[in-house]
Amino acid sequence: MTKQLVALRVNRRLHELAIESSWLLLDTLREQLQLTGSKRGCDDSSCGACTVLVDGIPMLACTLLAASCEGREITTIEGVTEHGALAAIQKAYGDWGGAQCGFCTPGFIMTVKHLLATTPKPSEEKIREALSSNLCRCTGYSQMYEAIKAAVEAEQKGLAGDEKNAPSRT
Amino acid sequence: MTVKPFQLLCPRELSDALATLEKHSGNIRVLAGGTDLLPSMRQRLFEPEYVLDIRQLREIQGIRLTEQGIEIGAFTTLHAIENSDELKRSYPLLVEAAKTVASPVIRNMATIGGNVCLDTRCLWYNQSLSWRKSCGFCIKKDGNICHVAPGGTKCWAAFSADTPPALLCLQAEIEIRNASSSRRVTLEKFYTGEGDNYRRLQPDELVTHIFLPRGSALYGGAYRKLRIRGSIDYPLAAVAVALKRKNGDFEDLRIAITAVNPAPLLVAGVQSLVNRAMTRERMAEEIAELAARTAKPLTTSALTPEYRREIIRVFTKRAVLEAAAD
Ligand SMILES: Cc1cc2nc3c(=O)[nH]c(=O)nc-3n(C[C@H](O)[C@H](O)[C@H](O)COP(=O)(O)OP(=O)(O)OC[C@H]3O[C@@H](n4cnc5c(N)ncnc54)[C@H](O)[C@@H]3O)c2cc1C
Ligand code: FES
Ligand code: FES
Hints:
The structure holds 2 protein chains of 2 kinds.
Chain A: E1 4-10, E2 13-19, H1 25-32, E3 51-54, E4 57-60, E5 73-75, H2 88-95, H3 105-118, H4 124-131, H5 142-157
Parallel strand pairs in A: 1-5
Antiparallel strand pairs in A: 1-2, 3-4, 3-5
Helix pairs in contact in A: 2-5, 3-4
Chain B: E1 7-9, H1 14-23, E2 28-31, H2 37-42, E3 50-53, E4 63-65, E5 69-73, H3 78-82, H4 85-90, H5 92-98, H6 104-109, H7 112-117, H8 129-135, H9 163-169, E6 173-177, E7 182-186, H10 187-190, E8 206-213, E9 220-226, E10 237-246, E11 249-258, E12 265-266, H11 280-294, H12 305-325
Parallel strand pairs in B: 1-3, 2-3
Antiparallel strand pairs in B: 4-5, 5-8, 6-7, 6-8, 9-10, 10-11, 11-12
Helix pairs in contact in B: 5-9, 11-12
Bound molecules: flavin-adenine dinucleotide and FE2/S2 (inorganic) cluster (2 copies).
């Protein structure tokens, strides 16, 4: 099948790619752009490990065609860091044990980033609802819930990145 | 696993989309949110030469108030439906059902048109090519046997979408178009009741709109869904109840079930049981019995048919009592 030229905006950079129109966004990100942060965790669009933002909205990169994303702004986990430093939510995930094996983490961070962007002070229910889009086989979700609450608090106090707020480790 | 190569067509105008469907009729699939079609294409259940991406067709997006009721474009996401103030106010049952579909992220992509058109599902069908090949292909795809009803010649795959039972209770109609004409049918008439050829849609046709009549506005209701996981999961038995009351009495009661038959079904005979001289509890039980008799689940999913049928009974009773208590 012939390839076509598609202009994809990923993490604020425009890429011109020669791809087949049947290619999935996830494969295009991972194999053409070497953005391997987004993971393939399942084969039936159920796990959320591939979640990216499309025009700011979380979607499954394994269930989108790359060519359908032309003209839209795609953000992957690689585009989440702020000026080279970890974003508050990334740091909180690390501090609170929100990531164990880490395979699900890039997807979760994208889902949670959208939650925090649209709901600066999410209720417990809102947090749990957001977390219900992604599967994690390690953490049991509670640590993520704590991490999100900590990130929200840090954001409010302007304390993002403050070590004192993190739980002590043994 | 990737999909078999195809050519993607992304028209901007509805007329172009319909002309494209006509031109490649039989060798083209409509791609809306893709949350059903793309996983199925990865499993090689569909291998079309062309795929028609309808996401740029503005004419079939959004929720509009009209004199007759509400018009919903087929390419309206379930996220937009669950957040529509108009729908929350006038058709809360649809909102409640939409909110149970898959997960919040999937609902950002999934459309109502895709939900209405959702392919029927079966343990023996929604599997990878190698899995299906090693077990023996079935009637629905590539084979001539049925693993669910051995010896049978009919496909029993279950229709498993959440919004259609709510839409049936609300007496929704859908608009279907091809390049030269347009027709409007009640949603009830859209489904055939067969597992393989489950919908009345010609290869050159597109579902363009869904209409909710004004007469169904402000019905109360409840939706109860059985699934294995609390999120990211299809219904394995579910019931929608819509109720209109007058002076405390039931004026109109409608019930529909999904995920237990090859089509979503309105339960017949409900109205004749309403307001008879019996306790509300007793009435709910008799209605639940009707619903359970309408359900004909087979071994198409991980839970047993007996359990799913019983759940239809239990959920119907609960949903009727809950709607009545509102
Ligand atoms: C993990 C997972 C869990 C899920 N859980 C649920 C669930 O709980 N409940 C549920 O109801 N669904 C569930 N789904 C299925 C699916 O996400 C939804 O049914 C969704 O609404 C389908 O819409 P879509 O726009 O993504 O459809 P698509 O995948 O784009 O299309 C589905 C089918 O309809 C056809 N089609 C779409 N739009 C039109 C149109 N306008 N005219 C003609 N044909 C059309 C397509 O050709 C295709 O055959 C789940 C899916 C996944 C992956
Ligand atoms: S890889 Fe599992 S949902 Fe995309
Ligand atoms: S940390 Fe291992 S799957 Fe979530």
